[in-house]
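Here is one chain, start to finish.
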Amino acid sequence: MTDLIGLYEKLEEAAPGRVRRNQAELCCYSGDASQVKGLPDFVVLPESTEEVSRIVKLAGEYEVPVTPRGAGTGLAGGAVPVRGGIVLDMSHMNHILEIDIADLQVVTEPGVIQDRLNQALKPYGFFFPPNPGSSAMCTVGGQIANNASGMRCVKYGTTKNYVLDLEVVLADGSVIHTGNRCLKTSSGYDLSRLFVGSEGTLGIITKAVLKISALPKCRKLVMVSFPTPEAAGRSVSLVFAAGVMPSACEILDRTSIKVLLKLDPDVILPKDGDVIIFEVDGSENAVNESAELIAGAVAEISSSVLIIDDPDEMQAVWDARKLLGAAVSKLDNTKTRIYLGEDLGVPIRKLPEMIEKVYEITGDLGLQPMIYGHVGDGTVHVGQFIDVLDPESWKKLEESADRLHLAAVSLGGTVSSEHGIGAARGEYLAAQCGHAFDVMRLIKKSLDPKGIFNPGKLGLWRKKQRRTGK
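Its structure:
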């Protein structure tokens, strides 16, 4: 049995005055934005890499789990201590250490908030492009751990495209750098990419060197409504075939539109059909040409086209879109949005088929879905909302999520496009990855032989893995 009193005393020596064990405080760290729950034994707020190293060494010595946590905005239980142990709250390591415009990079600690980083970069005419809907709260460390993306990923890519170097504390307390400050390198294994998306299961990120991009000079929104969601899905391929690379490409089905109009009746949105919002950016001439090309590409299958160039109106649209996931209660205040089967991704040409399957599966079970997401890279978010006091509704939701995950895999897709695997969908990772999943387990065992880093995540602890959808 672990000597928790002895561990507490040593944690206090490692991080004086920043160890929490009061039950009320521990409860604040028992969940994220998902339905996953787990209570830690301690919460520690380190302020340096050296402190993290000492804490990890203690965790290894006492063989207790360590779960890193940013802002707790995750939707899959990735930062939830499902096996107890120590939560490392990285919010005190929140400094922007250097802005290096000459080398197109910024150096940050993991607790820096995404929007704060971009506010600091804006006076220089630069930004860090990955922009998840939680950008006002989420941390850089969390973005890296989950390979976060967001609405502009179709043009600018995901977090992994911007990580040049990471400082990481390993399971024995040693510290490594995974890359360097060159904008490209071809020197051995790409360790930075290994830790991006690892969800805290391989090491603790304590510093990051990130590539940055110049802010575009001009933007426009092209809002197109369609008679069916399948037609909306087909439009994405048509726009790409026309030679346009939108900076954002979002689908909002008619349920999503209804939610947003209840949230803000004055926001500019088409009032009918299923909608795709295309954003284009760049020079003024390029933006104007791209907007016209999009309108022409979708003319034969669309119901209406609206072009917006007013910055305030565009910002209002994106602000409303960021609130969509949590705003479904506007439709029915007796029901709650549950994040299950909600982060699917498929090849772009399979979008119409995936959308059709969403309506087929939820229709079979009598559930009302809401489809939205970054369809420009094949992401389909499925919002499902139920009466959480009704056990039958939970059963239907769980069956729907199971069928949706397997449907995405059957189409050559992914069970998590951007929110991560966490504790919510580990059973599907082997089905998606096949024998590559066995390689993941070998990597985990090699880097974390005692299994102290974020146990219970990514399905790595399951004895039996679902290999097929049968």
